[in-house]
Design a protein that fits this description.
The protein has 487 residues and is an alpha/beta fold. Helices cover 37% and strands 20% of the residues. The structure holds flavin-adenine dinucleotide.
Length: 487
């Protein structure tokens, strides 16, 4: 039986392990942490439970597929329900808008709250759908870097419709041109942050991210986001994938341009295939020191990171939803601070995620578990303890001003993650959330492929490589890797 070693048990690594096991390989996963899941982990503060990383669940059918590979019913292990309100948006001028997952309800709400003509929004959403339909088969479900992709009819269709992608305009320019109303422009600009980019730099093509949320909906995992990694880890164990925890892979061993195994604590472990779920930059810089380094890919700008305040809140707030955004008054200044100045503006956009709204056991009675996230630059040596102090106060001020409350008096537990914590826990280079940023029009083409062009039988999955960051794309990277190995 052929053997595959997976380096890392992030969601991409777990999904790759499952897919290769289903293809009949002997699969071993080496994980540096004592637990599986990477960024998809969880912790408790007193009686409060928090998901440490991702909070937004989209396209859960890619998780279901993993159970179906083994003829198991996903519903026996992983359940979720579609949210009626994807996100609730607040501005300091007291404008409040519910983003309904039902398209017509959403368009009506925009019309009612912001007085924007329904036809303008309908046309915008339709255009985003067209972009997605033209790209999904080229970008998302196969390797961009194989000749077959370039000969496909989907790509030829895409080239003929190149103007549709609006890659010569920024997302902000497209939104200004097409939507005009400032609150609505800001709302749709926000989707640039789904891959850690700036709406003032990322191309207009990125309106398609919004389409994914609108078309496929947002979901809540009934036992929290942690049940994604837990349930697929259990599935892998049930089906014979082997796991080695607290094992840091130090080197990928290459002989005659072919991978032959890995080194863990000076012990060589042989393997026919190696798949790295480690961030692509340290994979090259630490594990492949003696091999060819693809400088162009490795030097790309990294995505943004985050400061996260996990607060146990001794009160409930009826006016808040599972996902809430409190917008900054100056979005341009906010993103310039992150990507130009490497800092956080004094009026940040605040994201508040409260899983206890749906998973009641996540907080004690009459209380809520607040995951408060601020977009931040990645780690380039800033003094994070100073930044945390300032941003914490600015965040509290922002929440108090927008919601008219005194939030500090209700905080009974607190923990803080900075880009440094994210790098330490998951080996993500500079603590970036999504690998490289999409701050230029070629970025979709510049992500590292899912295979090595120089070393045979070496593959890559996860959020730092093709097709991109975020849970659904990590799951798709696993699908692409397993197809490549099958071939
Ligand atoms: C705060 C935050 C919020 C986010 N919000 C969302 C969201 O709402 N929705 C969404 O879809 N996505 C979100 N993301 C992004 C999403 O979490 C990631 O894209 C995804 O989880 C990355 O998975 P991965 O497979 O790349 O592996 P990672 O989660 O990066 O894990 C890699 C694993 O490999 C291990 N490892 C690394 N190097 C080695 C080595 N040498 N030896 C052994 N083990 C090693 C690490 O310990 C780690 O466990 C968020 C991320 C963060 C941090």
């Amino acid at each position: 039986m052929k053997k595959a070693i997976i380096i890392g048990s992030g969601v991409g690594g777990l999904a790759t392990a499952l897919r290769l096991k289903a293809q009949g390989l002997d699969v071993v996963v080496f994980e540096n942490n004592s637990y599986p899941g990477g960024k998809l982990s969880s912790f408790n503060l007193g009686q409060y439970r928090f998901d440490a990383g991702p909070s937004l669940l989209t396209m859960p059918h890619y998780i279901d597929e993993l159970f179906e590979l083994f003829n198991e019913n996903p519903k026996d292990y992983f359940n979720y329900k579609r949210k009626d309100i994807s996100c609730k948006y607040f501005w300091e001028d007291k404008t409040v808008l519910n983003a309904y997952s039902d398209k017509n309800k959403f368009i009506n709400e925009i019309n009612k709250v912001l007085k924007v003509d329904k036809n303008i929004v309908t046309k915008y959403l339709l255009k985003a759908k067209k972009k997605y339909d033209l790209t999904k088969n080229i970008f998302l479900e196969q390797s961009l870097h194989k000749i077959k992709t370039y000969l496909s009819s989907d790509l030829i269709k895409g080239i003929f419709n190149l103007y549709m992608f609006q890659i010569n305009k920024t997302l902000d320019t497209v939104n200004q041109d097409e939507l005009k109303e400032p609150h609505l422009v800001q709302l749709f600009n926000r989707f640039a942050t789904y891959n850690g980019s700036s709406p003032f730099k990322t191309p207009g093509m990125m309106t398609l991210i919004q389409h994914l949320e609108q078309e496929y909906g947002t979901f809540v995992s009934e036992k929290g986001m942690i049940n994604i990694s837990k349930s697929i880890f259990d599935l892998a164990k049930r089906n014979g994938v082997k796991f080695e925890f607290n094992k840091l892979v130090n080197e990928i061993i290459v002989k005659n341009n072919k991978v032959v195994g890995v080194k863990v604590n000076n012990t060589v472990i042989e393997s026919d295939f190696v798949v790295s779920n480690m961030d692509i930059v340290p994979t090259y810089k630490k594990l492949l020191k003696k091999s060819y380094q693809p400088k162009k890919v490795l030097n790309q700008e990294r995505s943004s990171s985050a400061l996260i305040f996990y607060w146990g809140i001794k009160k409930t707030f009826k006016n808040l939803e599972l996902h809430n955004i409190l917008f900054s008054n100056n979005y341009k200044k906010e993103f310039d601070s992150i990507f130009e100045l490497g800092t956080i503006s004094d009026d940040p956009t605040v994201y508040i995620n409260i899983t206890s709204k749906d998973v009641v056991s996540d907080a004690p009675k009459e209380s809520e578990n607040w995951f408060v996230m601020i977009n931040s630059p990645n780690d380039t040596g800033q003094d994070w303890s100073e930044i945390i102090k300032t941003v914490r106060q600015n965040t509290i001020n922002k929440i108090n001003r927008t919601l008219n409350i005194d939030i500090e008096s209700f905080i009974e537990f607190e923990k803080v993650f900075s880009p440094k914590t994210i790098e330490k826990n998951t080996q993500s280079y500079l603590g970036s959330l999504y690998g490289s940023s999409s701050n230029n029009k070629m970025s979709a083409f510049l992500r590292h492929p899912n295979f090595s062009k120089h070393i045979q039988n070496l593959y890559f999955c996860g959020g730092s490589v093709h097709p991109g960051g975020g849970i659904p794309l990590c799951l798709l990277s696993a699908k692409i890797v397993s197809e490549l190995i099958k071939k």
